[in-house]
Amino acid sequence: MRDAVGKLLLFGATGDLSQRMLLPSLYGLHADGLLPEGLTITGTARSPQSDDEFRAFTRKALDTFLPDDRKDEAAIEGFLARLQYQALDASTIEGFDDLAAKIGDVSGGLAIFLSTAPWLFGPTIKGLQSAGLAGDNVRIGLEKPLGKDLASSREINDIVAAAFPEERTFRIDHYLGKETVQNILALRFGNSMFEPIWNARGIDHVQITISETVGLEGRAGYYDEVGALRDMVQNHMLQLLALIAMEPPARFDGTAIRDEKVKVLRSLRPIPADEVPHVTVTGQYDAGAVKGEIVKSYDEELGKDSRTETFVALKAHVDNWRWQGVPFYLRTGKRMPERRSEIVIQFKPVPHSIFAERGGMLQPNVLAIRLQPEEYVRLLVMAKQPGLDREGVRLREVPLNLSLDTEFAGTRRRIAYERLLLDLIEGDPTLFVRRDEVEAQWQWIDQIRAGWKANDVKPKGYQSGSWGPSSSIALTERDGVTWNE
Ligand code: BG6
Question: In this record, what's one Pfam family (predicted)?
Answer without folding.
Answer: G6PD_C
